[in-house]
């Protein structure tokens, strides 16, 4: 069996072993989208439309953002930081395996397990909010866009967190950098609010950067609120940024290994 | 009691020295927690750019609730996070032994182990935004209400801590669930908005989120001069019940500790 498939399988098995941990992450990821769904269910009039969003769209938006984030977000920076801090990168340098691909397969295994756990949570969530949500055929067809965009979105997010993680070579205690990055990405990806509600300069910035194409665009497209051209524009944006982040990662990885001491703390 | 005060003073002194030595980390903590506070304010501003009120609560009233959320959240994280975050690893590695053997209550020592001073800077930011909101609303808070507010804030921190201790103690039962330390702070986000914001979904859900929303809404009502004695009584009741429950749960959970390590 291909060694990377084995890594993926092992990661999945580990996730199953610590299923309570994975379940806790899902609950944690869903709390804020749930809060916003309840708040918008309270404040938006059923007949009102704001930037094309009806009350049902807002609720579905936050629900899908919670669901999609939990599948495509990777948090690879935390693992890499731990490996560098503890000197564990040395193990990978001596093995005939790519550290980048090893980390990617580990993340995919973990996220695959989260996807499976997410399904019943999603159904329950849907049941709770059913009286506020209106589904139509167009929505069901548009929903098919989500699985298509999962892989490029996950890949782009992974490349970004991998490039970001390289700061750990120079800054051992880099969690504050990661937290700051999470806060910025949170806004620019449309997780705080739909991008349409942000000020215009932020909207423009967000369109050029990849983050809105990782969360906001797939979710909005699945709600049937984006034109088909946007779907391909998102794919293109994700492809270009994935390559750019991978290049940054490669350059920093080579430079970082020169300052890496392999001592561990 | 004197012993506990002396130990806590030593722990505070240790935290100060750590932050002086690792200044970069301190600055990073301030920046990250300020960013989180700004997100809270931004979410309120973005909502009110499109809506007039949240079930009768106006923009600066909600901003006051969010500011109080920032204050309570950052005080609680500043005091308890570093200590409680270490607990899952202590259970897993058997390191908890060294805390249990010390001639001081282990719950106290673990919970108060180290302060994160950066969060207190953000709590001050919360105070400033609260003062701004009150100024905008033209409210002069009487001294009695201010004292009542301080009491409510302490009770709210106590509720937060009790729930946090219970969730982290679940690590005695579920191995590797170290992320449970995140559950209480994330759940506390329900307090970002006034309790009335959650009525839309019906009373079942409202009752479930009520304790969290009360934790910030009651102190805000006190500052706004709209003291709700029923809710204030409920807050006192909740803090006592949760403090007792968390202590019992901690004691019970310790019995599950095998000291085996891994």
Features:
heterodimer; A: 265 residues; mainly alpha; 74% helix; 0% strand; B: mainly alpha; 10 helices
Q: Could you give a short description of this structure?
A:
The complex is a heterodimer of chains A (265) and B (262). The longest helix of chain A has 32 residues, at 228-259.
Describe it.
The complex is a heterodimer of chains A (265) and B (262). With 265 residues, chain A is mostly helical. Chain A is 74% helix and 0% strand. In chain A, helix 1 (3-17) packs across helix 2 (19-43), helix 3 runs antiparallel to helix 6 and helix 8 (145-165) packs antiparallel against helix 12. The radius of gyration of chain A is 19 Å and the shape is globular. Chain B contains ten helices and no strands. Chain B has helices at 2-21, 23-50, 59-93, 96-100, 106-111, 117-137, 143-169, 183-187, 203-223, 229-254. In chain B, helix 2 crosses helix 3. Chains A and B meet through helix 2 and helix 9 of A and helix 2 and helix 8 of B.
List the helices and strands and how they pair.
The complex is a heterodimer of chains A (265) and B (262).
Chain A: H1 3-17, H2 19-43, H3 55-72, H4 76-85, H5 89-93, H6 99-128, H7 137-142, H8 145-165, H9 175-188, H10 200-208, H11 211-214, H12 216-222, H13 228-259
Helix pairs in contact in A: 1-2, 1-6, 2-3, 2-6, 3-6, 4-8, 8-12, 8-13
Chain B: H1 2-21, H2 23-50, H3 59-93, H4 96-100, H5 106-111, H6 117-137, H7 143-169, H8 183-187, H9 203-223, H10 229-254
Helix pairs in contact in B: 1-2, 2-3, 2-6, 3-6, 3-7, 3-9, 7-9, 7-10, 9-10
